[in-house]
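user: can you give me the structure for this one chain? tokens are fine.
assistant: on it. calling the predictor now.
[tool input]
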Amino acid sequence: MIGIFYGTRPEYIKIAPLVKELKDKGVEHTLFQVQQHGTLLEGCDYDFIIPIFESGSRLNSITISILLYPLPQDLDHVLVQGDTTTAMAVALNAFNNQIPVIHLEAGMRTYDNMNPYPEETNRRIISSVASIHLCASEREKDNLEKEGHHGIIEVTGNPSIDNLVGIKTSYGNKVVVTMHRRENHNSLEEWFKSIDGIAASSDYEFILPLHPNPNVQRYKDLFEHVKVVDPIPHSEMLDLLANSIAVISDSGGVSEECSYLNKICLVCRSVTERGQSAYEIVCATPDALVKTWKGLKLENGSYLSREGSTCPYGDGNAAEKIATILKNVIFS
């Protein structure tokens, strides 16, 4: 029995294709919903509400709650995705109970513990206890091998790309904006003012589905030229990305999706664990974002010259590859 744990919306979006494939292949598994982001899915097998401890830190509350959670005795393996605090704490809990850990989206690195924070440290902790590492690309496999990690290390692609297969794309008049990363919270005012300035001097319609985090919401009134909307379902977000002219984001998942959809993504981060695609352009500061935008010249066709680049994060068949590996390794 594989226990699959997820605690945030992006985690569930990325494991959903794998869950379907495991069902199709008859691989026994159980879904555990940890409510780091509240209720995510109706009909999961276990729903774990995180109590808030008086620790002064929500990250500590999440970690403590999960470490105190008694894992079911019938679990042969535990699978976690990515680099959230939920994934790290579940992996550590499983390790302490001598349950082998499967890490999906393994090996991503910036080698800067504060960028992204706390994700960089979380994923390195998971790598240290995992016995099966499922990597999005060869670069992540190389990272793990250089660090001396053992166990099974396989390049499978990222199941998030599986969600994009068959989506039709066009180059419309919209620029999609997303900003939420914790390491950007102290500079969000500067980022948002720069983005609003870009929008003011552009003929494109800028749309920002605003993240619900209070540290992000507090700046929503800064915008005069960007359309701010409530968070939208993932399917609608994919349609928006697929028909945009460009994207401005600090999200790793969004930059992966843009790489597959052939959309330029201006990545608002000082460093990224991805950055392997011709469509990802890192802008370390708000000033760099403004300068990069001015140099894009989207109207003259230079944008389309990037078409045909291979997406480094998968071909849309990751879930099938992963399910086959797990079935062969665990249940053969």
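assistant: here you go. The chain has two domains: 2-159+316-331, 174-306. The CA atoms of residues 196 and 224 lie 7 Å apart.
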